[in-house]
Amino acid sequence: MNKTALTKTYTKDIQNFCLNSKKIVLSLATISFSASCTHATLTPEIETYEEANRHTKARSSVRSKSSNNETINNSQTSTKTISGTGNTLVIESGGAITISNGSQQAVNFQPNFSTSTFLNKGTLIGGNNTASVQLGADRNNGVTIETFDNQGIIGNGSSKFGVTVWGKDNSKSTINNFSNSGTIHSNAGESIYFGNANISSFANSGTIKSKQGAGVNISQGTSIGNFNNTGTIEGKKDGIQINANVKTLKNTGTIQGSAPIRSLGGTIETLINEGTMKGESIGIYMSGGLVKTLTNSGTINQNNSATWAAGIKLQNNSTIENIINTGSIHSNAFGISVTGGKFGTLTIKDGGQVYGKYSAIGVGRSQTLGDLYIDGSSSKIYGEENGIVLDANSRTQKIELKNGGIIKGKIHGIRLDNGASLSGEMILSGEGSRVEGGSGAGILNRSGKIEGSITIKDGATVTATSNHAIANYRSGSITGGITVSGKNTKLQGNISNIGNASIGSDIKIEGGAKVEGGLVNQGNGSISGSVQVSGGSSIDSITNEGNGVISGSITVDKNSKLDSITNTSTSSTGISGSITNNSDNKLEISNSGNIGGKIESTGSADMVISNSNGGTISGGISSSGSGSTSISNSQGSTINNGITVSGSAQVEISNQGSVGKDKNGNTVTNNGSGSVGIKDWLVSTDKNTGKLNTVVIGGSGKDNVKVENITVDQSNVDLEELNDINNIISGVNQNNIGNIGTNGSGEISLSFDPITGKLTTDFNLNASISGATFRSLISTTSRRSTFIDNVMGNSMQSFVLASSSKSQSIAMSEKGNLYADASDYIKSDLNNGSYGSNKEHSLFILPYTSSQNVELSLNEESKGHTKGTIIGYSTLKDSGIYGVYAGYEDTKMGSTYFDINNRTYYAGLKYFNTLFTTEKGQEVYIKAQGKAALIKNDLTEKIGNNEAKAEPNSYAYGVNTALGMNFISNKDIFSPEIGLAYEGGYTEAFSMKDTIGQATVKGGERTYANYLNLFSTKTSLTWFRDWLPNLKTSVELGAKFNINPKVEAEARFGNIKVSDEFDLPRVQKFVSTSFIVPVNEAFYFSLNYNGMFDKDGNTHTGFAQFNYLW
Q: Locations of Polar residues compositional bias (predicted)?
């Protein structure tokens, strides 16, 4: 082509450009002549940009002009100011403008300037207090540039700003194409600032960096069509700060700063991150404005661990309508957080992940998250504390997890707090989908509101290491119920409804799902619907406790499994519906609350029912399947409407409570081919009629009912009714009746002859409160008598020790039972060997304790304790030693049927004297004693949960005497002794008064006055050893023989008078040991033990004794 043709072609192009500048596509080859249509002067030949550049280099001048176009390829130090229109500016790679004046720019495009092209391949460095390149002026008219292209360096980190673009509301700067493939680097301010500017396209493939400020600041009044970063944008403060409208912002490079993107206002229609965003303080920070769609397939990292920080943060009423994350959002605080604004739809899919050190997704107080979707096998929401947290009064619409997505927190997987609302459903579905909690719960609703339902299905899992899979807590509510459905679907932990929480609909475990834990309803928790286990599903247990309420029924279908139901609720409602087991798996039911419906077993499974602690089953019990059923109804518990058996079921019943009758008047109905075994049944008296609640057996299979044991409750029983077996049980084959008895201590016994049908009643006072009182009285009186003998002997013996060792005989003679004090044995030796004989008085005060075992109830050894104090005084006279004592003691004894407590006040006199000494030096002595005691009894009789009391007085009195001899061999003394004693006593007549319930029979129970006159002999042998002057020991073995061990007693039960005999043990054995340490002339100290043993019990006493003599 010749030059003329070339000129015409270019001329036509320029004319077209003047007509429509938007259609021109500029290249570097045409920049030198396309500055302005207004000033263009056509020449017959126009050089290309490359040609003009070659000509310029050939000349000595450092710049060239063709019309208003300018190219710089050398170094300059003054501002290049561009004004007017049609001017182009090109800075070649060798060109540079470096300004030393702090307030001067390298290039300044004046207001109202208009050009097609600005190209920088060189270096532009402005002053340190201004921009390197300024377009327009603050609060002034803007500029118009078709293409702003930086391929070189602007700023180099020394100028305050890199590029500033100014305008005002009615005269904005306009740049169609703003591109940077070089470096724009500022110091204190923004690298790029847009204020009141319209940018059609912004593309960065180079580096935009600010040492102290923002990388790019898109300020008010600005709009950007497409913002595309494939390079690096970095700011000390923010990577990009936006307070304007941006149609599309896309990052495939790197944006980093305190916040990689900070929005202060305006609208971003589409925000796309395919690269990396790094935030030192925060990630994408919305402090105002709107993002319609945010798509992240790259990486957003945030390093700050402050609690306000997040990877994506909404504040100050900002909004993100849609977030789609297929990449990674990682934060040292919160992954995605809204504390002042609104999220629309949040979708995590295709392997997208959100991680937060605290919570992965946090919706702050009173804020909003729309729908949340997590989709895909590698998609994950993970928080070191919580996966998702909805704070107080926050709102969300729907949470859906599917296709293997994961929500995980080391405390809670999902947490709703006070007043937080989920208006829609929570759906977790798909193999591998998982909500996982740690020390808290998988899903925690703490006083929040889930207005829809929670559905876990198709292989999804909810788990927590704490064993709380789903926890509805405090005043939390789940309106739509809970469904766990599908094969391989699991809840690894409990469904817990705690505090004042409520579940407003059914709980369904279906389609082969597993709950590896239980349903726990605690506190004031309420479940309004039913609980259904079906389709081969399983759950470990259902527990209703505290004041919890389950308003519906509980059903276990065929092939499904529920191990146990426990109802301990104190609510009057408890479980208001029925419990039905249709499965072939064993079910155990424990109830101490209220079950409003019936319990029914229809399948082949075994069932165990325990009704205890006042529990009530209002609808009765029905067993119609083929499995075995065991029923236990404890004392104070009730089963209404009877027990019905049909089919081939085998039923075993133990009843200590109350079982009502069905509509046909039967207590137990057997209409099946199976057998019914009554292991034990307590028949009580009806409080209203005063008659026994007869056990009525009915049904076509009643002959297959066998009674192993039946017990009549003595409480308020009319003894006249015990004459006929049909008052106790009827309808049963009498040959199938085993043992019949009562629930007392054995004072009333029954015997039944199935051949004659005769029922007889026998009485045994030895087993009654009268016998228990007698045995306790004898035990404590004998123990006290021998104890007093010993301690008084200790006090008296020291008077005769100075002149003769015969005084040791007192010690030997005073053993004989459990309270014997071994110090008795040493007084003579102690005083003879160490001290003078001028003592005439002895005084002691001795607190003491004793433990004893007595057979209060027959064949039951009962433990008791005695605490007391005794004071004694002895004086030496020519005619012998005289002593006086007084004391008080408190005894408490208890057994299954009786408690016997008494307070005793006692006193007595004692005498000792040596009769003579044999030729061989053996001493023969005598001693005697008289005593009396007042005993104030507190007696309790216990029949079941009922009690009756009486408080009669007893009076005890007695005398005894003994002869003994001391045989002395060096340091050893052996002392045999024999004695005779009389023990008398009298106990007032008393009637038992009911204090709790009614423990006595109808007509009351009275024990008549009892008189005791017992004679006994005693024999013993004592060995005393004088080891050292200040160390003595003694051991005594002996036995007491009761001469007349039978005592008569009389009592009345209702209108029946009874007399009986009490048998005392014929022989009582005793052992005593003492360890004695003389202290000085006036004091001695001893450690003592005594044990007493007979066929009815034993007593053990240990005590330390000090005696003072003067």
A: 63-85
Query: Which residue has better confidence, 222 or 918?
Result: 222
pLDDT per residue as tens digits for the range 360-415: 999 999 999 999 999 999 999 999 999 999 999 999 999 999 999 999 999 999 99
Residue percentage of the chain with pLDDT more than 90:
66
Is the Cα dihedral 743, 744, 745, 749 positive or negative?
A: negative
Report the pLDDT value the prediction gives residue 456, as an integer from 0 to 100: 98
The residue out of 19, 38, 64 marking a domain boundary is: 64
3-state secondary structure 627-692: CCEEEEECCCCEECCCEEECCCCCEEEEECCEECCCCCCCCEEECCCCCEEEEEEEECECCCCCCE
Q: Are strands 643-645 and 621-623 parallel, antiparallel or unpaired?
A: parallel
Region of 536 on the Ramachandran plot (φ > 0 left; ψ -120 to 50 alpha; else beta): left
> Counting runs of H as helices and runs of E as strands, what totals does the chain give?
5, 100
Question: What DSSP element (H or E) covers 371?
Answer: strand 368-375
Judge whether 10 lies within some domain. Answer: yes
Answer whether residue 928 is part of any domain.
Answer: yes
User: Taking a C-beta distance cutoff of 8 angstroms, is the pair 647, 669 a contact?
Assistant: no
In b/e form, how buried is each residue of 951-966, taking b as 16+ CB within 10 angstroms? Answer: ebebebbbebebbbbb
Exposed (0-12), middle (13-18) or buried (19+): which is 1109, by Cβ within 10 Å?
A: buried
Residue-range definition of the domain harbouring residue 43:
3-64
pLDDT at 861: 67
The reported pTM is 0.73
Nearest to 400 by CA among 348, 334, 353, 352: 348
Q: What letter does residue 756 receive in the DSSP assignment?
A: T
State how many domains the chain has: 2
Residue 601 in this model has a pLDDT that exceeds 80: yes
Q: How confident is the model at residue 844 (pLDDT cuts 50, 70, 90)?
A: confident
- Residue 610 belongs to some domain of the structure: no
49, 64, 79 — which closes off a domain?
64
- CATH number of the domain that 1018 lies in? 2.40.128.130
- The residues with which 729 forms a beta bridge, in sequence order, are 695
Q: Name which of 514-528, 564-578, 758-772 the model is least confident about.
A: 758-772
d(CA 806, CA 797): 10
> Rounded CA gap, 190 and 239, in Å?
9
- 10 Å Cβ neighbour count for 203? 18
User: Residue 3 above 60 pLDDT?
Assistant: no
* Closest alpha carbon to 485 in 521, 516, 513, 507: 513
For residues 831 and 842, what is the distance between their CA atoms, to the nearest angstrom?
A: 13
Distance between first and last Cα of the chain: 154
Dump the DSSP string for 989-1056: -EE-EEEES--SPTT-EEE--EEEEEEEEEEEEEEEEEEETTEEEEEEEEEEEESS-EEEEEEEETTE
Q: How much is the pLDDT for 961?
A: 92
Residue-level pLDDT at 1107: 67
Q: Read off the tokens for 983.
A: 């023990």
Residue 794 has what pLDDT?
60
- Pick the range with the lowest mean pLDDT from 476-480, 715-719, 892-896: 892-896
Residue 751 lies in a domain: no
Specify the 3-state DSSP secondary structure of 43: coil
Rounded (5°) CA angle 452-484-425: 20
User: Token pair of 340, please?
Assistant: 């002042």
Average pLDDT score over residue span 125-149:
95
What is the per-residue pLDDT for 1081? Answer: 67
* Angstrom distance (rounded) from CA 354 to CA 325: 8
Query: In whole angstroms, what is the distance from residue 965 CA to residue 1020 CA?
Result: 11
Q: In terms of C-beta density within 10 A (0-12 exposed, 13-18 middle, 19 or more buried), how is residue 4 classed?
A: exposed
CA distance 469 to 482: 12
Report whether pLDDT(856) > 80: no
What mean pLDDT, rounded, does the chain reach?
86
Instruction: Please name the residue that has the structure tokens 């923004």.
Output: 190
